[in-house]
Design brief:
By secondary structure, this protein is of the alpha/beta class. It folds into two domains: 116 residues, Response regulator (Rossmann fold); 98 residues, Arc Repressor Mutant, subunit A (Orthogonal Bundle), CATH 1.10.10.10. 38% of the residues lie in helices and 21% in strands. Strands 2-1-3-4-5 form a five-stranded parallel β-sheet, with helices on both faces. Strands 6-7-8-9 form a four-stranded antiparallel β-sheet, covered by helices on one side. Helix 1 packs across helix 5 and helix 6 packs across helix 8. The longest helix has 16 residues. It is elongated, with a radius of gyration of 19 Å. The chain starts with 7 loop residues before the first strand and ends in a 7-residue tail after the last strand. 28% of the residues are buried. The chain binds calcium ion. Calcium ion (CA) binds next to loops.
Length: 234
Amino acid sequence: MDTAHKESILVVEDEKKIADIVRAYLEREGYLVQVASTGEQALGLMKERFVLVILDLMLPDMQGEDICRTIRENSDTPIIMLTAKSAEEDRIKGLGIGADDYVVKPFSPRELVARVKALLRRTGKTKKKVFSFNSGGLTINESDHETLLRGKHVVLTPTEFRILLSFSENPGRIFSRDQLATIAQGFDFEGYDRTIDAHVKNLRHKIEKDSKDPEFIKTVYGIGYKFIGTPDED
Ligand code: CA
């Protein structure tokens, strides 16, 4: 299977033994897994695209609740909390901090996998696969990797498509160059990439009538780019 099409899950867990077991079970089910052992690491990794986050509540540097809230500020990625004791269970229930589900330790890895699948089924239903902007002026079909500009097929490189898809999923959101570099390079991101401006330039060349007066990708000076297409009603 092409790894670019595998669904990626972030596991935030400082206990290596647990992280390893969870990783093994999820990988066996065909998911790509990234492990973060601190909150800081987890938030850094959130620039990438994960279909789901498994988040331990007790981490060495940050409270799981704070990480959950921070993730929720910019993302609706489903979150399953791992909690160690029933007191924490109560805290989660009471706080409404944005986790979609929680599992109490010690847990069976099989149960966790079942919860992951159930949550992805639940949230996947509402996930859009076709994005349409400016009264059908631009359509992006995620499943077919197809882009249409005023009804005409546009040939995009895989990188350009990934960038455009992320824009489409988040109209109005400002992406930093760093975030776009991570998106552009998929899961193999290592280090900082300044070539993002070149990718955006090429993408604009293909979809904008006038790059100086863009309909879709606006430059946000000193930060990055913002997608300004107007989403069409479903
Ligand atoms: Ca822990």
